[in-house]
User: What shape does this take?
Amino acid sequence: MNDPYHLDKGPFLRDLVPGDRFIGNYVLRSKQLESFRDPARGNFLTLVLGDRSGQLIARVWENAEIAYEDVLEGEIIKLDGETESYLERTQIRIFRLRSAEPNEYDMRDMLPSSERDPEEMVKELKTFIDSIKDQHLLALVNNFFNDDEFFKLFIQAPAARRVHHAYLHGLLEHTLEILVLAQTTLQLYPQINADLLSAGILLHDIGKVREYSWELDINYTNEGRLLGHVVMANEMIAIALQSLPDFPEDLSLRLRHMLLSHHGRYEWGSPRRPKTLEAIALHHIENTSAQLNRFNALLSFRQPGKDWTEYDRLLRRQLYGSSEDELSIEESSQLS
Amino acid sequence: MNDPYHLDKGPFLRDLVPGDRFIGNYVLRSKQLESFRDPARGNFLTLVLGDRSGQLIARVWENAEIAYEDVLEGEIIKLDGETESYLERTQIRIFRLRSAEPNEYDMRDMLPSSERDPEEMVKELKTFIDSIKDQHLLALVNNFFNDDEFFKLFIQAPAARRVHHAYLHGLLEHTLEILVLAQTTLQLYPQINADLLSAGILLHDIGKVREYSWELDINYTNEGRLLGHVVMANEMIAIALQSLPDFPEDLSLRLRHMLLSHHGRYEWGSPRRPKTLEAIALHHIENTSAQLNRFNALLSFRQPGKDWTEYDRLLRRQLYGSSEDELSIEESSQLS
Amino acid sequence: MNDPYHLDKGPFLRDLVPGDRFIGNYVLRSKQLESFRDPARGNFLTLVLGDRSGQLIARVWENAEIAYEDVLEGEIIKLDGETESYLERTQIRIFRLRSAEPNEYDMRDMLPSSERDPEEMVKELKTFIDSIKDQHLLALVNNFFNDDEFFKLFIQAPAARRVHHAYLHGLLEHTLEILVLAQTTLQLYPQINADLLSAGILLHDIGKVREYSWELDINYTNEGRLLGHVVMANEMIAIALQSLPDFPEDLSLRLRHMLLSHHGRYEWGSPRRPKTLEAIALHHIENTSAQLNRFNALLSFRQPGKDWTEYDRLLRRQLYGSSEDELSIEESSQLS
Amino acid sequence: MNDPYHLDKGPFLRDLVPGDRFIGNYVLRSKQLESFRDPARGNFLTLVLGDRSGQLIARVWENAEIAYEDVLEGEIIKLDGETESYLERTQIRIFRLRSAEPNEYDMRDMLPSSERDPEEMVKELKTFIDSIKDQHLLALVNNFFNDDEFFKLFIQAPAARRVHHAYLHGLLEHTLEILVLAQTTLQLYPQINADLLSAGILLHDIGKVREYSWELDINYTNEGRLLGHVVMANEMIAIALQSLPDFPEDLSLRLRHMLLSHHGRYEWGSPRRPKTLEAIALHHIENTSAQLNRFNALLSFRQPGKDWTEYDRLLRRQLYGSSEDELSIEESSQLS
Amino acid sequence: MNDPYHLDKGPFLRDLVPGDRFIGNYVLRSKQLESFRDPARGNFLTLVLGDRSGQLIARVWENAEIAYEDVLEGEIIKLDGETESYLERTQIRIFRLRSAEPNEYDMRDMLPSSERDPEEMVKELKTFIDSIKDQHLLALVNNFFNDDEFFKLFIQAPAARRVHHAYLHGLLEHTLEILVLAQTTLQLYPQINADLLSAGILLHDIGKVREYSWELDINYTNEGRLLGHVVMANEMIAIALQSLPDFPEDLSLRLRHMLLSHHGRYEWGSPRRPKTLEAIALHHIENTSAQLNRFNALLSFRQPGKDWTEYDRLLRRQLYGSSEDELSIEESSQLS
Amino acid sequence: MNDPYHLDKGPFLRDLVPGDRFIGNYVLRSKQLESFRDPARGNFLTLVLGDRSGQLIARVWENAEIAYEDVLEGEIIKLDGETESYLERTQIRIFRLRSAEPNEYDMRDMLPSSERDPEEMVKELKTFIDSIKDQHLLALVNNFFNDDEFFKLFIQAPAARRVHHAYLHGLLEHTLEILVLAQTTLQLYPQINADLLSAGILLHDIGKVREYSWELDINYTNEGRLLGHVVMANEMIAIALQSLPDFPEDLSLRLRHMLLSHHGRYEWGSPRRPKTLEAIALHHIENTSAQLNRFNALLSFRQPGKDWTEYDRLLRRQLYGSSEDELSIEESSQLS
Assistant: This one.
């Protein structure tokens, strides 16, 4: 990356191969002292390291207790280590480690992130917002997107923990993809209410800014697990509508119905099934964006030189890609 | 009925048998002029009549156009008629009909209604509310139940259109049944938070006051079909909580999680599945009340002298009752 | 319609209301003599009539035997009749009828048909075909679309018997819609092989030219019921590939996999589930086109002045539309 | 525990933390000699130990062959050991071990057991039995509960291997819970036949005394796996009814129908679905008892200080509890 | 039919076509007086008639009250009538009717019956029984088949109410078919215990002698609906085993497991799923017999000259047969 | 084995028990160098070995790098080793190893293979083919079975990768079993078209010769995963029919329908459900053969002396067998 502000974190975990000796910065996800089977040898230290390319296990075999004290779970650490193969998996043998200094890494390297530029995406989003002609819908949308605190979260948030757009700015990217697909859909079916569809797309996943946390890892919040983003989005809109007393009742029902039914089927956690043209449109183009992103991510993560991905437990199948050579994560970033 | 305020509406539709000549008052659900097959004979009039015991088809064979003009869909009509059998079904041949006067019927006879006294049920409900010790939960519950407009609707509302407690005051009766079951549950599992369970029960179905209309028939509102009472209840609480800024966040999550998961399974339209002790308790005792009421209603509606009910399409089975003689709906009301 | 070549068939069945006296031309789908209940009155004749707006029952009460002999099932008949209401349904009382002359009707009025102009659609389709750069895929696609016999059927065929694009030229219209959606999809996911996606779209439903017959009604052929269009398309391509010996094996697998998996799930009759990026793209954009068309059709067929459609048994729900007045089928044709 | 008859077994396995040095008595579930990777070092011994709080792996590193000979699988052993962490799990390093003497432990500490006093539960059960007024039902119930051999098993048996009340006396506790819930149900729905419901509850799970074995572990018997307790209970009653020739046929059908349908749905292994009021009541209150016990157990087993339990594979979710400190199993026993 | 003992009942209902004038004997399934729409005309009589070929509606237009008194529901009546078409269905206009004399019909013509000779089937069955070598299994089987009362019912009973072998002697025919299939299965898989498989087949559906009644119609008994034949068979065997104290426990478990799992899947009402070689064999060959019979019956009932059957709601499809001409039911009986 | 051509490969992997010292020949499925935890000790070598009885892990602790270079993945190696127990599993410690010479092993010992003699099976198959009287069907069948290249693959191919007949010649054995079952089926239901059923059986799984590869392991081909054998068989027949222009269209549809529906249900990957008598017959007897083979294989692989097999994840249950002693794989081969 040619970004002058982008600090060199060292190699990404996914690019390491057995035998590499390297220095790098990584998130320390957990640390634990374990005892050798031979009690005379005392303890060793097991760490789980992460960065935006994935995660690996690392061990400190010597002076483990001291190393244990030197670093904290949840911080970024700098280490000097070597990769090796153990029980058919790659792990890292650490020779030295310490807490990293803020100027030694770039937080953007630590969590996976959209390959698109966030600022450009924000510009594109604003164009879509500005194209809404219905003043009620525009006011409601702006109630959120003109709120700086909300908007900052919306820009950063991932769209999922694992399945699709599961990286920083993923929610923004996903929302934009649906807006783009919507234009073609409207061209084919002019019976669809364009402003209603746009507003529904912009608001359909806003609950995710509270469903996930994404400090050093993407995870569910308690609220996310107990309420779910579908219901939270409806609640956020219901509260916002309190300050828009002239908002037409029928428009409010149609809009909220879209959000509540956008998962499409009860068994996919949708409290309603689509019953309007705008709701069925949102469900299908949202799903198109999500599934393409999911397949694309799974295919790009398959082992170099392999046609087939690993078996995916949620899809219950392996996927098939082209047999062209894959680039390292660093190379592929440079391309985009 | 010995109630001095209770006007004599005439026989209930469910109690009529072929050959009865009678005078009575009924809701006119629809009217339609139809032409005889023999064009020389002109038109006849087909009416759909209802009261709280069910509905029947009626015909006016003579002077149908005049009769058609005399009455309005949606009003109560008084008629002189005779029941007869046609194509294996009972129908009514009408000799005379007119709009009924307000003092000729009691609205309570027109829609099915709980067999329990509403005032007694309200007293019992208030006792349960008063037993809540947690001041936050109590304030939230009272936010609704001290609101006269809401409370009036809550007292009248049915709990469903068809399946269970599908009659006036059904929501109140259903809520009380769950509160009673909750006491035993708490005795068995003191680990359950009693106040949270009570508040969750009281609020779990409040969305139904907006999901149904029950003027002359129980039906879904547009809002009910497009949003659903589960999500509406959550929304109503979220808005109410805005006026209770000190309400503990964790308590709010637990309470709303109960409402959102009380249908238990995604395929039953539940946006969440129960994840707390209070949520699983609410789901199961709510279901116990609903299913017992549903079975009891189906069994009480089976044909006199029959052990088995008709086939129920939702349950996909027939139910089996005792073979004791059934009472007419009027007699059974007198008993209770 | 201002088309000078368009003959006046008389009113469309869907536009008739009780009391209309009219002359018109319709497909005679079936005829049957039935006896009056009163044996002294002899027989009457029951006909099922159709045109592209729907179908209705008609009766000849007088001289039924003669009328029975005058017309043949499966031909177009001209009649003089009047609509009336019977058992809450509209039916036609026929005064006179005879076989229609070829110059008295336009076949395009008899079966429902796409509202788009077939010739324009063909032009658009050819542009998409011409944009395929891969010579193997282009040769395969042209193997079909340059075959006049196939192409004539492809242009006429419906895309379904009932669910979506269930009218003449529906297959062409559906294929075009997917091609248009594909352009946006490719813009979002350039990793998709554009030529493979285009070829897959063009060929995915070619089995439907043999799955359906559409003489005077859209129906399944025996082949359609016993084999199904998914498998037939694969078979047609396998045979075509025999004349293209240089077609790359991997490309052939990827292409046929797309067709075989485009229904997406086993329970939707798909012998494979999507395992490539092109296959998942085809599945989702194909479904988007199909479901939007289906919802749009159901909503446009709802009763005038009603917000909700009738209950749809396949979707297991009613749909919600805007409450604006609906146009007659003739008016709506004039708009397009 | 203040019970003078209760011998001190040493710490419970679930209360051990890395670094504890202790002496205790445990069930030896299995033993196996394994070879060190370095052949010069010979063998070590791996043991699986259990008590009523759970199970742990233990190792003997020195003189493993001698230790192997000293103890038998399936007996109680006494050991001197120390806990340590290995591959992120706790295991025990054993310094000394031998067979335990009968006076060194209390069998009740070895298998998990109800926290309620069995004698009190038996008294409560007898009160419920005595309240049955129908002489036929009473005779049938007593046919079982007056049979000492059966009754002894009934008192001891668990209600399940894992899911709910999966401990000694669990069947008794579960049966009592349902009887208590039934009282409230009867109060709400007096149409339920009280004696039939009581008898149905008392007998619904009697097949479990033969479905499970619970010597040193709760497990399925061959009969349990091949026939299942639902069918076995029906069979036991059918045989008992042979000695009660006057038992009314209809009552027998209703009672057995309750047992056969108490799992509620075919996919939950129920050969019938509830078709009577008593059957639907039994199904729902039985399920309430089972699910509350299951949730309560899962929540009480979550890691100290955690709000969320581990992911439960059968429920396919994590559960959420209060964040108050958890007590050790010994402390919580003292409370009850 | 050349059977000298076979009385001439008149035409079978399924063979009647509009315009036939005939005299015949039929089961009177129900009778009901209905009023003409024109009250001056009084009442007519509607009858439901049945014989082994199917059922039809019949009407008495003149002197209906007298006719109503002359015949009883559930008896065989003799009538003089004529078939006519009404609302696209065939019905019978009756001119004269009276109770039939016992010597005017053969009961075997009234309910559908196996086309195979019962006595031959009994002989074949006995050969299979005699081939069982294991004395325990033989004793158990004979416990039933040597019991005259049981055996008489077993020979007569249908195997189902509708789906397969739904006619007199159907259970016997179905059992024999499975025994025949079993011989081939044993030849392929000699690991199967032949005696156990034979005994399991002979006993697997014995509960059906109590699950169905087949007086003038095949119907469920109360016991059949509340317990089901799967569980009843197990119960009958459990009771029989009480008189065979030496019967090996393991053999008993294996045998009863076969019966309990022979429906194969929980959702098909099977309380167990097959876990032994004999159980999986029984499940599959039983299903082969049932499904072939079901398909064969549906195909033989399709309309003359049609390739496709009517839509079958349980199979959710139409079936496809050969287009050769179908014989009347009388002709096809003569062939067999 | 007394086969003079059968070379002695050494013990089968499944027969090895801890402590065995042996020399034998095995497929080398994979090899990997791993580092000791103690870096001073360098690397060891981990191998995965296979033969027709199963697979095991093996280690070379000394001079691992040299051993690594000496052998190739995918070849047969000869080794001198000893079995030992590690983490409750058996593994092999290798002392010496090298590539095996072709005359040191018999390829038939390396992959599991049918216990029946392939030549005898081929003879039996030809008899079935010769019994087809319909010249069209016979020509089509011979189009395949007279093609030497096809026939050689058909004889060798397994019928599945894991579930049933998952060994060399399994497809041939499975096809024969169905043909044998078909004879009995035809005897019971002579309405079935015998030639059509035979041809359908012979051709139903021919796609498997391209769906699987079985060099040193049974695996899916890319074509198998992307198209599936059901569709491939249809395609192969469609192409073959091009050279048989007189083949009757209706016969072709019926035959291909059988193949396309032989999995029976959409959710089992069947693009059609059976709609003809021959199709339902094929589905059920095919399934009988497959499930009996599957159960038999699982039961024969259970641990010696155990009644119950391990839990099978696809069947989601354990199976129950007889408790007689099991033979080693070598002994059981000698018996057959």
Q: What stands out?
A: Chain F is about 40% helix and 15% strand.
